[in-house]
Design a protein that fits this description.
Layout: E1 16-21, H1 25-37, H2 39-44, E2 47-53, E3 57-59, H3 64-69, E4 78-80, H4 81-84, E5 89-99, E6 104-109, H5 112-115, E7 120-123, E8 126-129, E9 133-135, H6 143-146, E10 147-148, H7 153-172, H8 176-182, E11 184-188, H9 192-208, E12 221-225, H10 237-249, E13 252-255, E14 260-262, E15 267-270, E16 275-277, E17 280-283, E18 287-289, E19 306-307, E20 320-322, E21 327-328, H11 345-364, E22 377-381, E23 387-391, E24 394-397, H12 399-412, H13 416-431, H14 447-452
Parallel strand pairs: 1-2, 1-8, 2-5, 8-20, 10-17, 11-12, 11-17, 12-13, 19-21
Antiparallel strand pairs: 3-4, 5-6, 6-7, 9-18, 14-15, 15-16, 22-23, 23-24
Enzyme class: oxidoreductase
Pfam families: Pyr_redox_2
Keywords: FAD, Flavoprotein, NAD, Oxidoreductase
Length: 490
Amino acid sequence: MAPDSRGTTPGTRPGVRILVVGGGYVGMYTALRLQRKLKQRLRSGDAEIVIVTPEPYMTYQPFLPEAAAGSISPRHVVVPLRRVLKDCTIVIGEAQRVDHAKRTATVTTLATGEDGTGALEIGYDEIVIAPGSVSRTLPIPGLADFGIGFKTVEEAIGLRNHVIEQMDIASATRDPAIRDAALTFVFVGGGYAGVEALAELEDMARYTARYYHNIKPADLKWILVEASGRILPEVGEAMGTYAIGELRSRNIDVRLETRLDTCEDRVAVLSDGSRFPTRTLVWTAGVKPAPLLAATDLPLTERGRLRCTATLGVEDMSHAWAAGDAAAVPDLTAAEPGRETAPNAQHAVRQAKVLADNVLASVDGKPLTEYRHAYAGSVASLGLHKGVAHVYGRKLKGYPAWLMHRTYHLSRVPTFNRKARVLAEWTLSGLFKREIVSLGSLEHPRAEFELAAGGGGSGTPGLPGPSRPKGPGEPPRDAGAPPKDGRTDG
């Protein structure tokens, strides 16, 4: 271990430093296992684990659709890292570069622009790179202006508020064109995120419609756009076909082998020539590796993921490790050579265990273990009491698949605290009615105060006021939206 390998660091412990970049599945589970196995060394100062993550929590993404539908509180979809990783050093910030030759990572934090000291240079002895992925977008006209993502808990809750707000607009407006656009919801992408988000929100909106005097469930128009010829490929062709039939039976328009060509001026134009004026366009058409990977001196595949070995080490690089969305890991259980493990939660959680053990083995000079896991199958929710599953060769649909979906993910969500809270919420939601409240003002908490104080500008950066420009997917205030106090001229 080089004496100058520390760099500028958040701590001064003299032992081996393990830097974990990312606080998602791989980052949290790896750090959790390392913390457990290095307990004595961490407390004696012989080892230090540093986690660099943009958010102080890990998001359990399979629960995002249910959070959007109001079945689970958004606080229970996330796991606070400081509580779970009590013996680790948590740095809330973003890694901008990794110079593995010098064993340093350049990190910007919330305080970087405030104290004028510049980015941190965090040195390390072992590094785990697990920054996850970001939404993969295409240069489609209007997408950046009006598209809504569905990858974070903030986006999930924002989308729920947005859908209910559109129903409020449709209920209040006198313009038939505005009403039709407000009640038209377009989802692009037929994978897990798109199908589950659409199905859960359609369920929620259909239930909510009963509380509007002038909106019926049949007035809502839901459209799923998928470029390939099938949806939910992970559950198999038969279950994917069943899912299409289930969605269409609920009057959801499923468009296969169709692309979004443009969404300028709030009009979704599809490759089959269809045009849909809409105020809601949700983009879930895949992900791509985090930009950090391109800012390292580590080998990448043609798709931009880190080239890894079966032991989860970065190829031809010692003391560098990766797993999950960021890593191209060979699948040793596949029949055809050269196949890689799928970048999903099932592999990420299991890879984290092997990765942590191999990091410790590397530190202690012991043999490494290869990652090997046969894909068990997949489950997907299609709304309340509806789902599809293809697990260990068995195909399930309807209520049994939905129950398996909930049981599986309840067993996988981290910590007993979160399991108990989620189970309690599911139980209560079965006994009482759904919540149908939109809390859109949560996204701009200072708007009301700025209005009262006579502010006309955008106010504090990051907390726009009443005259702020509209964000992606947000309707203009002069397009039929009722005033903030809920009153209308009618």
